[in-house]
From TrEMBL:
Upper classification of the organism: Bacteria, Pseudomonadati, Pseudomonadota, Alphaproteobacteria, Rhodobacterales
Family of the protein in this entry: Belongs to the Gfo/Idh/MocA family.
HAMAP family (UniProt xref): IolG
Residue ranges of every copy of the Gfo/Idh/MocA-like oxidoreductase C-terminal domain listed in the record: 135-320
Protein name: Inositol 2-dehydrogenase
Organism for this UniProt entry: Marivivens donghaensis
Principal EC category: oxidoreductase
Domain Gfo/Idh/MocA-like oxidoreductase N-terminal: 3-121
């Protein structure tokens, strides 16, 4: 039987996820949608889906088994807490929350419920190239990781994108992928601004370089540039004790002409990570069908929000800002490889 899904937030990524859930993936049916902009919800609703007036009514509907949250970050907390109260599995787009305090409330509520219900939308973990890169790092082929260089370049950003957002909206992807790739925790953050780009306009503080200090002593440098104009350019390179492992260039047709030999760049995140988003939902549908969640957890959402908050402090102070994590609830501890007798 198909998993009955309700989608909250039918904007840019909400519509893209509705497309993949209705046209690409199987085992799933969208039965409900909601958006504070009712007209937008009506336009985006697939045939037969009910348009709900509030997220809570959608979450509590008997015709909804699982929820996909694609509303704005500050709205996620209340919607996630309602999903936990209803005991329903939920996929929540990043950032899980926009403050450390809100993230702790979610982690505590899910831990008290006693079972994982939340998967956070860190799609890079489902990208085949990142998965192969992690397999190399885990295999110890390049020795212990010493540094990771993470490049996150957007062609452009919408006009509502402010100078805080490279740190509390965009950086969360690099924070999460660094923790996951290196199997490490972030313990401190520094932020530096080079000369400002005149492209992209206004007062936007762009680009920015962030240093993530890892518990192991490894350091991650993250370049975030949000107005490069030429495309969506995501790179990653792990520098180990005995070798280097990098994400490959995206396979694309090689064009040779009077301008030289070149490959096209993806336009934006939808194009670059299209297969990764498909795969994150494939895995979500299976877990949600079993009444639970796998993949990036509420704990991972908490860790990235904590990093974003520290980065905002570091941008202000110009200093190294340490992170202080709460004790990890048992729900998020790795299961032992061999069960205890
Ligand atoms: N994983 C990824 O690569 C990406 C993730 N995102 C994340 O997805 C979320 C949505 O982003 P976009 O689709 O780009 O924004 P958007 O502005 O295009 O769409 C958001 C929609 O949510 C609705 N909304 C806002 N608050 C609501 C509430 N309280 N209840 C119901 N509906 C509400 C808005 O009316 C709007 O239609 C954000 O958290 C963003 O960071 C966005 C782009 C890429
Ligand atoms: O999540 C995303 C956007 O919200 C964000 O604004 C972009 O910088 C990221 O590259 C994209 O993946």
């Amino acid at each position: 039987m198909a998993l009955k899904v309700g989608v909250i937030g039918t904007g840019m990524i909400g519509q893209d996820h509705i497309r993949r859930l209705t046209k690409v993936l199987s085992g799933v049916e969208i039965t409900a949608v909601n958006d504070i902009d009712v007209e937008r919800a009506k336009e985006a609703a697939p045939y037969g889906a009910e348009v709900f007036e509030t997220p809570k009514a959608l979450i509590e509907s008997d015709n909804v088994d699982a929820i996909v949250i694609c509303s704005w970050g500050p709205a996620h907390e209340e919607q996630l807490l309602d999903c936990i109260a209803a005991g329903k599995p939920v996929f929540c787009e990043k950032p899980m929350t926009t403050s450390e305090e809100a993230a702790i409330r979610i982690v505590e509520a899910e831990a008290a419920y006693g079972k994982r219900l939340i998967q956070v939308g860190f799609m890079r973990r489902f990208d085949a190239d990142y998965r192969r890169l992690k397999a190399v790092v885990d295999s110890a082929m390049i020795g212990a990781p010493l540094m990771y260089h993470s490049v996150h370049r957007n062609a452009s950003v919408p006009s509502h994108y402010t100078s805080d957002m490279p740190l509390n909206d965009t950086l969360v992807h690099d924070a999460d992928i660094s923790r996951w790739l290196l199997s490490d925790e972030i313990v401190g953050v520094e932020v530096r601004y080079p000369r400002r780009s005149t492209v992209g306009g206004g007062e936007l503080k762009n680009p920015v370089i962030v240093l993530l200090h890892m518990e192991s002593g490894a350091i991650v440098d993250v370049e975030i540039s949000v107005a490069i104009t030429y495309g969506y350019d995501i790179r990653g390179e792990v520098s180990g004790e005995t070798g280097v492992a990098s994400l490959p260039n995206r396979p694309a047709t090689v064009v040779s002409d009077v301008n030289g030999i070149r490959q096209a760049m993806p336009e934006d995140w939808r194009e670059r990570f299209i297969e990764a988003y498909d795969q994150e939902f494939r895995e979500w549908i299976i877990a949600a069908g079993e009444g639970t969640a796998t993949g990036p957890s509420a704990w991972d959402g908490y860790a990235s929000t904590l990093t974003a908050d520290a980065a905002l402090r570091a941008a202000e102070s110009g200093q190294y800002e340490p992170l202080k994590m709460i004790k990890k609830p048992a729900l998020y501890l790795e299961a032992p490889a061999v069960a205890a007798e």
